[in-house]
Amino acid sequence: MSSQPPIGEIHSAVHSAPGVPVIKSVNWEGLRTLYIKEVRRFFKVQLQTVWAPAITTLLFLIVFTIATGAKSPVPVDGQIVAFADFIAPGLIIAQGMMGPAFANASFSLLVGKMQGTIVDYLQPPLSTGELLGALVGGAVTRAVIVGVVVWAAMALYPGVHVTPHAPLAIVWFGLLGAVFLALLGVLTSIWADKFDHAAAVTNFVIAPLSLLSGTFYSVDKLAPAFRAFSHANPFFYIISGFRYGFLGIADSPVMIGGIVILVIDVVLATLCYRLLKSGWKLKN
C-alpha cells in the first residue's frame, strides 16, 4: 500500500480556503528578512551611508569651534555651557542620526517605483504594518550606527565633553527622533515620483527645520517671533531633549517635548500605514 496521503488531503493541507490567511499572526520571518535586506543595502555602500555623514558632522563641529572662532560660552536655562559642549549633542542627533534616517527611508520605495521593482515590496506575504516596521527599522538602525560613530569620535575630540548625563533621555529622544525622520522618509517615498521630489523635501523642509532648531544657538537669545517659530518646530524638542541627556539642561521642558514627539510619531505612523494600505501612488 502507498504511504502517501490521498491527493485531496495534500491539497487541503497545502492550500487554505479562499480568503483565509495562511499566516494568521505576525510574519516574523518575513519581517526579519526585509529588515536585513534594508540593513544590507546601506551597508554595501557604507562609505557613503555611514562614514560620509559621520565625517560631515565632525566637520561641522570643527568649523564652528575652530575655524569660525566661536568659542564663547552659551547660556542655557540660567547656566553657562561651553560652546563645543552645547553644539555637540545637537550635531549628533540632527546631522548624524535624523538626516541618515530620512535618507534611508526615502530611498527604498522610491527607487522601487522608478525601477519598476516596487512589486518586491508589495507582493511578499507581509502585512502593511510589517512592511512599515521593516522600512522604519532599517532607517533607525542606520541612524543609530552613524550616531554611535559620531559620538565616539567626539568623545576623543579635545575640548568636547559628551559623557551621558541621563541615558534614558538620550535613548528616548534619539530613537523618537530617528523614527520621526524615518516616517517622514517613508511618506516622502510614497509621494515622490523622482529623486528631485525627495531632494526638494530634504532641501526645503528637513534642512531648514534642522538648522533653525537651536542646534547652534540657544533659542533664549532669539526675538519673540523667532522664539515662537522655534517652539513650533518639532526638531527643537528632539534636539533640546537629546542635549539634556548629555548636559542635564535644556531649552524646553523635557517631559513635554518627549510627549510631543511621541504623538507626532504616532500620527505619522498612522498616516504612512493608511497610505501604504491603500496603495496610493504605489499600485498604479
UniProtKB/TrEMBL annotation:
Domain named ABC transmembrane type-2 is located at: 44-279
Q: Which GO terms describe its cellular component?
A: ATP-binding cassette (ABC) transporter complex
Q: Which Pfam families match?
A: ABC2_membrane
Please list every transmembrane segment annotated in the UniProt record, as residue ranges: 50-70, 82-111, 131-157, 169-192, 198-219, 256-276
The keyword Transport is assigned to this record: yes
The answer to whether UniProt assigns keyword Membrane to this entry is: yes
* Topology in membrane: Multi-pass membrane protein
Q: What Gene Ontology terms describe what this protein does at the molecular function level?
A: ABC-type transporter activity
Which top-level group of life is the source organism from?
Bacteria
**Entry keywords, A to Z:** Cell membrane, Membrane, Transmembrane, Transmembrane helix, Transport
Q: In which compartments does the protein localize?
A: Cell inner membrane; Membrane
Q: Which PROSITE patterns match?
A: ABC_TM2
PANTHER family the UniProt entry points to: INNER MEMBRANE TRANSPORT PERMEASE YADH-RELATED, TRANSPORT PERMEASE PROTEIN
* Family the UniProt entry places it in: Belongs to the ABC-2 integral membrane protein family.
Q: What is this protein called?
A: Transport permease protein
What species is given as this protein's source? Answer: Sphingomonas aurantiaca
